[in-house]
Write a structure and sequence with these properties.
- By secondary structure, the protein is α+β, with helices and mostly antiparallel strands.
- The protein has 2 domains: 1-87; 103-342, 2-Layer Sandwich (BirA Bifunctional Protein, domain 2).
- The protein is 42% helix and 20% strand.
- The chain has 13 helices and 10 strands.
- It has helices at 2-14, 18-29, 34-41, 47-86, 105-119, 133-136, 147-151, 175-185, 224-239, 291-296, 313-321, 327-330, 334-339, and strands spanning 123-124, 130-131, 169-170, 189-198, 209-219, 245-252, 255-268, 271-274, 279-289, 305-312.
- The strands form 2 sheets. Strands 1, 4, 5, 6, 7, 8, 9 and 10 form an 8-stranded mixed sheet that branches.
- A hairpin with a 2-residue loop joins strand 6 and strand 7 (255-268).
- The longest helix is centred in the first third of the chain and has 40 residues, at 47-86.
- It is rod-shaped.
- The termini are far apart.
- It binds 2-{3-[(4-chloropyridin-2-yl)amino]phenoxy}-N-methylacetamide (2NL).
- 2-{3-[(4-chloropyridin-2-yl)amino]phenoxy}-N-methylacetamide is lined by residues 175, 178-179, 214, 216, 252, 254-255, 285-287, 289, 293, 308-312.
- The site of 2-{3-[(4-chloropyridin-2-yl)amino]phenoxy}-N-methylacetamide has 18 residues, from helix 8, strand 5, strand 9 and strand 10.
Length: 356
């Protein structure tokens, strides 16, 4: 009996892992283990012998079981100590950065434009991108067979077969928003109408969708002088430097008289800088609102007059941020945007807030 006890207690002490310990447990106190075999022998003993051997065997079994339990805890502790020594984490390391999106240059320039015109007293007006041909053309004094309808490279919507109404169009300018505002609010008005416009045209300087901002001021005595002051204030604020403007006589169906506006610029090594030099760059069309257009907007041209203008936002963004190809904005090759300092993902590299 003592041999048995010594044999197992020694084996338990020497066990190096939990699998060995489990083998010992089965051999010693398992159902078919050595102690169980000895228990079975009790049946063949005399009652006196049994009274001595029974409790002894039970005590042996208990002793082995508690030695097994103690060793199990010791092995688990040792395993944990080993893992703690091996695996560790430097919680002082800096975290992994996650790329952040940035504002698209068109959105950014749009916000800059809203902020400047807000300071000049202009509210922002919006309207639908799918228009009927009255709001897009007729109301703007563009007659049904006027070449401007073709010049605009209009996208026409489809009508159901048998529907004889003129097809709707993707608006070719944001002028229809100005017509809608006149009809809704009446005079006096000071608004800008920014947004997406569509023309079927695609090359280095044209995309089928682009962004325009039109503006108008209607009151009793608005003149071309007010227009010139507003535009000079605008370009000076937008480019962050005093910008001279030059008005050239022109023609649009919706304004009379009409003027194209150039900003002062300088060409150097194929790049253009606005607000310096003796060259001129065309950036805008404008004029006094045609009486017929005021009438379309429900405003009496004998009582009210106003100026209107229209310019491309995309081109303005290209000029301000030195982006030479319009397609960089929309062809979604992110390397282009990144090259010009606008990363779609990653740290933006252009300094400054809304006014650059
Ligand atoms: C250009 C020309 C222009 C307007 C847009 C306008 C709108 C109304 C009435 C009168 Cl409702 N005019 N808009 C006027 C002159 C020129 O845009 O070349 N834009 C890039």
């Amino acid at each position: 009996m003592d041999d048995l006890k010594n044999k197992y207690l020694t084996a338990i002490l020497q066990a190096g892992d939990e699998a060995t310990l489990e083998d010992i447990r089965l051999q010693a106190v398992g159902k078919k283990g050595e102690v169980a075999l000895k228990m079975r022998e009790l049946g063949k003993m005399t009652p006196e012998e049994r009274q001595v051997m029974g409790p002894k065997l039970n005590a042996l079994k208990d002793e082995i079981n508690s030695a097994l339990a103690a060793k199990k805890v010791a092995l688990e502790d040792a395993a944990l100590d080993a893992r703690l020594a091996e695996e560790w984490l430097d919680v002082t390391l800096p975290g992994r950065g996650r790329p952040q999106g940035t504002i698209h240059p068109i959105s950014r320039v749009s916000e800059e434009i809203y902020a400047i015109f807000a300071d000049l007293g202009f509210a922002v007006a919006e309207g639908p991108q799918i228009e009927d041909d009255w709001h897009n053309f007729d109301a703007l004094n563009i007659a049904p067979h006027h070449p401007a309808r073709q010049e605009h490279d209009t996208f026409y919507m489809h009508r159901a077969e048998g529907d004889e109404r003129a097809p709707n169009v993707l608006r070719t300018h944001t002028s229809p928003v100005q017509i809608r505002t006149m009809l809704d609010q009446g005079a006096p008005i000071r608004i800008i109408a920014p947004g997406r416009v569509y023309r079927s045209d695609y090359d280095q300087t044209h995309t089928p969708m682009f962004h325009q901002v039109e503006g108008m001021a209607i009151d009793k005595d608005i003149s071309m002088a007010n227009l010139k002051w507003v535009l000079e204030e605008f370009y000076t604020a937008f480019f962050g430097t005093k910008v001279k403007t030059r008005f050239r006589a022109s023609h649009f169906p919706f304004t009379e008289p009409s003027a194209e506006v150039d900003v002062q610029c300088k060409w150097e090594n194929g790049t253009v800088t606005v607000g310096e030099g003796d060259d001129w760059l065309e950036v805008l069309g404008s004029g006094m609102m045609h009486p017929n257009v005021l009438k379309s907007g429900g405003i009496d041209p004998k009582e009210w007059q106003g100026f209107a203008f229209g310019m491309g936002i995309d081109r303005l963004a290209m000029l301000k941020y030195g982006i030479p190809d319009l397609r960089a904005f929309f062809d979604s090759d992110l390397r282009w945007l990144r090259h010009y300092g606008f990363s779609a993902l990653g740290t933006p590299t252009l300094a400054g807030g809304i006014h650059g």
